[in-house]
Amino acid sequence: MSPREGRFEQGELHLKKTMQKQAQSTSQVFSAGQKAENGRSPQIIACEKLRYWLIIHSLKAYAQHPDMIGCGTKVPGSKYPKDARFADIRKGDKIVYYATGDKVVVGIFEVVSDMEYLESDPQWGEEFVYRIRADLLPPKGEYLDFKALIKDSLLKFDLFPDKKKWALQIWHHTCRPLTKKDFDLIAQQMHRLRIKSQADIDLVKKKLRDRDAEIDRLKVLIREREDQLHRLQSQLKQRDP
To answer: Which residues, including other chains, have CB under 8 Å from residue 42's CB and lie 6 or more apart?
Structure first.
């Protein structure tokens, strides 16, 4: 390699390093600008794009307010919910309503209001809430077994990469963001539960129809036997002197 070629490669290397530093500097400035945008961090901005949530409540909470989800305050009189992510939920978002303790999914809902503050709800007390509307519910009297979904080796969830520690992902949380993949997976299982339940209902109805048909057949047979008996009795009376 000639001295000239060596100087050329050194200059090219220096240029690459300079461009990398400039790119890094630009990225830092852009990042700082993002943080400064309306006082929101990049995490908050990204969170605004989330559309799917796992809401961790209870069957008791659902019985008390089937049209709401809620989160307590950090401290009495606070303007912020205890779970900071709860404030990131937006009107139009889709939620999976999970009942902890019973480990079941109550249903799929849509958020139909902005966050509201309840100073003194009769059941929940001081609470931040959203109004919700049901999109997909299990058959009456049934729930989707969430623990069974976790144990199913064929089902993979982004929220629970380590299924053995799945409970830790929702421990002490009111809500967790879901990927569309996870949301669709749970919704699909809810549809299957409805179809299976409807199939069971149809099977029971068929058995009842078959039973009724058998009862009608037996009634006809009984009437035929009674008619035969009456004819025999009549013939016997005619033979008596």
So the answer is: 31, 34, 35
HSE-CB of 44 using CA atoms within 13 angstroms: 10
Q: For 58-82, what is each residue's pLDDT tens digit?
A: 999 999 999 999 999 988 888 899 9
Residues whose CB is less than 8 angstroms from the CB of residue 35 and which lie 6 or more positions away in sequence, other chains included: 41, 42
**Tens digits of per-residue pLDDT, 117-126?**
999 999 999 9
Task: Tell whether the torsion through CA atoms of 30, 31, 32 and 33 is positive or negative.
Answer: positive
Alpha-carbon distance 223 to 215, whole Å? 12
Radius of gyration of the chain (CA): 34
CB 55 within 8 A of CB 95: yes
Check if the beta carbon of residue 151 is closer than 8 Å to that of residue 145: no
Taking Cα atoms as reference points, which of 218, 198, 216, 195 lies closest to residue 206? 198
Residue stretches of the chain with pLDDT short of 50: 2-5, 7-8, 11-12, 14-16, 18-19, 22-23, 25-37, 43, 46
Do 23 and 35 form a contact (C-beta atoms < 8 A)? no
Q: Identify the burial level of 200 via C-beta atoms within 10 angstroms of its C-beta, where 0-12 means exposed, 13-18 middle and 19 or more buried.
A: exposed
Calculate the dihedral angle through the C-alpha atoms of 124, 129, 134, 137, rounding to the nearest 10 degrees.
-50
Count how many residues are written for the chain. 241
Which domains does the chain carry?
3-44 (no CATH), 50-185 (3.10.590.10)
- 3-state DSSP call for residue 74? coil
**Alpha helices (H) along 136-179:** 146-151
pTM, full prediction? 0.61
